[in-house]
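Practice set, problem 2.
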Amino acid sequence: MNEFLTHYRHDLARSIEAIPLDMVQQAIDVFEDARQHGRRIFTCGNGGSASTASHLVCDIVKGASYERESRFKIMCLSDNQATLTAYSNDVSYDVALMEPLKNFAEPGDVLVAISGSGNSPNVINAVDWANAAGLTTIGFTGRDGGKLGKAAQIEVNVANQHMGRIEDAHLAICHMIAFYFMEDGATLACG
């Protein structure tokens, strides 16, 4: 068992070290611009990626907005279980993220789409619609990026084959973004 744990930790450390920090910085810049201009940020994903998308929203809504003069407008499309299951049951799971996005998104808003495989049809459909509607799209991907890597305007790729390590690294990326704002990273970067 110790050998498994050692290997997992080693491979995870390699995945974290390989996170493209320039792309994370681009995502931070997009978040900052959205906050400054009162634009909305939407997140989405399936399964573990939905959980990560929700976690990012929690960190930004509370940690990076509470008692601050400038606040983020951010919501997770995967969090509304009633709407998600209604579209999935009555229309198609493939549109379950895109259709609610149409209700709220405006040009200049942001969509953060998370998919370890990069090939979830409902996530890709949301990104394709967002691109056509004038949103900035950010994709957190794994493996070779899949279709999401090609569709997103900004791709933050974790080039690992193991879904657990991809999801671990995606959460680290979310924390890099959120804690940048929570810990006044902009001030720290200049100081």
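Problem 2, part (b): a different protein.
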Amino acid sequence: MVKLFMFHKEKLQNKSTLITIPVKGTEAVTVLMMFPVGSRYENAEQNGLSHFIEHMLFKGTLSRPTTLDISKELDKVGAEYNAYTSRDHTGYYIKAAADKIELALDLLSDMVWNSKFNETELEKEKGVIVEELNMYKDNPTMYIEQLFEETLYHGHPLGRDIGGTAKTVRAVSRAQMVSYYKDFYQPANMILAVAGKIDGQTAKLVKKYFFKNGAVPSGSRFEKFLCKEKSCPRAKVFFKETDQTHLVLGFPAVNYESSISPAVSLLNIILGGTMSSRLFVEVREKRGLAYMIHSGVNQYQDVGNFFIRAGLDKTRLAEALKIIILELRKIKKDGVTAEELKMAKDNVAGRFVLQLEDSSVQAEWYAKQALLMKRTRTPEEELQRYKKVTAGEVKKAALKIFDIKKMRVAAIGAFKNSKEIVKMAWLADRDTGY
């Protein structure tokens, strides 16, 4: 197989990790900084602090005192820039024309190491974040997956909202934020990925701007999730007068390092990952029960989940649940066809090719692996894992994951309580007759 993607990984003198990924046929470059910090590292009082810090690093540095000083420098060269916080990592990136790489390196290093955490800006940003939380909660299509993980990971940091709550956000002090920042934002915790049109001078430029030494990180641990079946709710509902019922049902699945991860991903594509998938055809195309229905997989260092999500007419919710559970039973009993497996593998290969043309996707691919996994694979190596998956392995993955006793359900709509949705799911399972 021709090597299309190459990378170089090295430890810098300050113990940070640099990954350089040359991408042919592009005039752009992406610089991405990633840290192992997110909502699962927080205690209940700190909930939302990782996300809050992400906002504050755009609020001014010692040499660029205001948000406008930062944004104007990037806007005048047409750069794309943003940041994101997840449950287990936070990333900051700038994508620009390749001849602006020094600006990207200078600005990112300045933001991450020299932010002021201005108290006035911090207090103003509390209102911004609370409104962001309200926006997500007002939008069922955004909020439903959060509600599902609250149910599945009940009582654990993985089940908390990444953005926190209005109460925890408003209670944050500058001292609390700076202390938390120092725990995690140390060079030894940092992965820096540079992808795109780069050359032999790139590493020298990186070392020019990322020379800062730091303390030994103290905030690198997280609480592992241990499922206590008896204490976890089977379902959770959020009452809202909506025209549609928004539903997620799902199961515990596999973590990042699982040997069956490729089989689970292929199972997802076949079951509900495309517009020709089983659930899309059976629920939407044949019966018109939903406009939106799909499945997905979330993975973390120690756990993961497989979910099915749909927007449904409440009066036909029981019928839809029955069809969904029937499809789960079928795939457990009969497995998948050779044609379905080939299509799923071709789908993966095609998406890899399209996505990896983008330097920002390549930067994130390598940074996430270096940060969260035991080894860094090239896209070619990952595709080889998918090519080796057999139909039998996909069936085994279905048998392992789709245990109805472990199913959790979240719903947004005009429900009186969660017992209503639990009863529907139980009846749907009982009545499938497969």
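Answer key, part (b): Residues 344 and 350 are 10 Å apart (CA to CA). The chain has two domains: 8-209, 233-431.
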